[in-house]
């Protein structure tokens, strides 16, 4: 899962990667209590890139302009996502903008260091070809970092500063089992100081249990999101997820409406889209698909329970839906709890006189193992996605 910029920078600060003083802004009025001297930059905290070009990064000189700019940013969706939080940060005068990253090389399955002198917003066009790579094929040493930075074309003082920073990035990558750490841009000031102006961190959800500190960073973010799930039911009717003008809805409930009759609830964007594709290939018609998010659910917290309830309601009650297909991938500890939650929701529906139709695939739990939880409930439980899809299509007819 992707951390937001301010969370990534929180990690950077911990390990001594230089970041500017900054302050989290939850609403435009917070800027009246800003503790950072002007000029500052206000940045939309969404997971999409290209915020600068989309208008989600604005420089301001005083409180009046800052409040107005913050209001504009809060109301600006970027790739369909509205920010719940902005980051206010001291302005930095960079004379050069570099690109740096550490990730796993898919071919060699080894960590790879990436760097380019063409960072910042020029990265997307010109930068790709210029990216230098160093695969860390044996034990990491400062040599790998220096090798990258020399290849990039740096020398002198900035060579040392940047390679020390690459080392810190690498240590963070390894210590926290990250999938990606990226700094774009790394600003270099006219005096040769370096500063991480933007940060992206992708956490490996499979490794989260070993890193309670990371879970804490993510949970802080969830608490903010959880508030949004407490909004009254009217927003259910305000419909059209990603297109909604209600930013609370668009940001937390990630769903797309179509014209068919099968509702899809899945976890993770990859799995959700794969499920939609498979249904279409089998000549079924999705009515709506909702991505419950790719986080790992270690404990069934109240927040998650609430979010799952909401998601089930949205999918069940969406226009055209005759059957709901739930395709979840988890691990044995959490998926049973998710199953129990779904069972309790269905019991609730039946008590209200409704007749929901559900097809469930909750991998890696076996259909056999789940049957007791769903005894007497109108659901089909399957082990494979194929049979789940066949059941859903049959039931939608
Ligand atoms: P992105 O467009 O989503 O990658 O967002 P960034 O955080 O990278 O911001 C976009 C651009 O704004 C960067 O490429 C920088 O050129 C510029 N920028 C961001 N933060 C600062 C800052 O603190 N000082 C200065 N001078 N420029 C910044
Ligand atoms: Mn950037």
Structural notes for this entry:
The protein is of the alpha+beta class and 397 residues long. The chain is built from 14 helices and 16 strands. Strands 5, 6, 7, 8, 9 and 10 form a six-stranded antiparallel β-sheet that branches. β15, α13 and β16 form a beta-alpha-beta unit. α5 crosses α6, α7 packs across α11 and α11 crosses α12. The radius of gyration is 23 Å and the shape is globular. The protein binds guanosine-5'-diphosphate and manganese (II) ion. Manganese (II) ion (MN) binds next to loops. Manganese (II) ion binds next to loops.
- Give the proportion of residues in helices: 25-40%
Strand content: 15-25%
C-alpha-based Rg, rounded: 23 Å
Derived from helix and strand composition plus strand pairing, the structural class reads alpha+beta
Average pLDDT metric: 84
Order of helices and strands: HEEHEHEEEHEHHEEEHHHEEHEHEHEHEH
The set of bound ligands, ions and cofactors reads: guanosine-5'-diphosphate, manganese (II) ion
Q: What sort of overall outline do the alpha carbons produce when their principal axes are compared?
A: globular
- The overall strand count is 16
SSE diagram, text form:
Elements (H helix, E strand, L loop, with lengths): L4 H11 L6 E4 L14 E5 L6 H4 L2 E4 L2 H12 L11 E5 L5 E9 L6 E6 L10 H4 L1 E4 L6 H11 L3 H20 L2 E11 L5 E3 L2 E5 L8 H18 L4 H4 L9 H6 L1 E4 L4 E5 L2 H13 L4 E6 L10 H16 L5 E7 L2 H20 L6 E6 L3 H4 L8 E3 L3 H12 L1
Parallel strand pairs: 12-13, 12-14, 14-15, 15-16
Antiparallel strand pairs: 1-4, 2-3, 2-4, 5-6, 5-8, 6-7, 8-9, 8-10, 11-13
Helix pairs in contact: 5-6, 7-11, 11-12
């Amino acid at each position: 899962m992707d951390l937001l910029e301010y969370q990534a920078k929180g990690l950077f600060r911990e390990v001594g990667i230089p970041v500017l003083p900054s302050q989290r802004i939850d609403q435009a009025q917070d800027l009246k209590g800003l503790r950072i001297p002007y000029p500052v930059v206000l940045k939309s905290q969404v997971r999409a890139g290209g915020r600068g070009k989309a208008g989600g990064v604005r420089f301001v000189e005083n409180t009046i302009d800052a409040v107005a700019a913050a209001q504009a940013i809060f109301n600006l969706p970027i790739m369909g996502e509205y920010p719940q939080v902005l980051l206010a940060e001291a302005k930095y005068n960079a004379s050069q903008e570099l690109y740096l990253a550490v990730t796993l090389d898919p071919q060699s399955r080894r960590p790879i260091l990436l760097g380019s002198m063409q960072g910042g917003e020029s990265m997307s066009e010109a930068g790709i070809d210029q990216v230098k790579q160093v695969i860390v094929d044996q034990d990491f040493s400062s040599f790998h970092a220096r090798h990258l930075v020399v290849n990039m074309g740096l020398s002198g003082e900035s060579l040392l500063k940047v390679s020390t920073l690459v080392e810190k990035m690498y240590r963070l990558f390894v210590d926290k089992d990250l999938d990606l750490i990226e700094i774009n841009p790394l600003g270099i000031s006219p005096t040769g100081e370096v500063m991480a102006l933007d940060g992206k961190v992708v956490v490996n959800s499979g490794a989260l249990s070993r890193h309670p500190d990371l879970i804490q960073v993510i949970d802080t973010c969830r608490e903010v999101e959880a508030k949004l799930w407490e909004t009254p039911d009217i927003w259910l009717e305000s419909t059209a997820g990603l297109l909604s003008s209600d930013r609370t809805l668009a940001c937390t409930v990630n769903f797309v409406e179509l014209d068919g009759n099968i509702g899809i609830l899945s976890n993770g964007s990859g799995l959700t889209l794969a499920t939609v594709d498979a249904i279409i290939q089998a000549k079924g018609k999705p009515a709506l698909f909702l991505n419950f998010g790719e986080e790992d659910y270690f404990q069934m917290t109240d927040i998650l329970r609430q979010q799952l309830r909401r998601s089930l309601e949205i999918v069940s009650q969406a226009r055209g839906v005759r059957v709901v297909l739930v395709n979840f991938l988890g691990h044995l500890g959490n998926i049973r709890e998710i199953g129990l939650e779904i069972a309790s929701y269905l019991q609730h529906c039946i008590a209200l006189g409704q007749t929901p139709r559900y097809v469930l695939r909750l991998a890696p739990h076996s259909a056999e193992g789940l049957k007791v939880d769903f005894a007497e409930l109108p659901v089909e439980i399957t082990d494979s996605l194929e049979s789940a899809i066949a059941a859903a299509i049959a039931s939608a007819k």
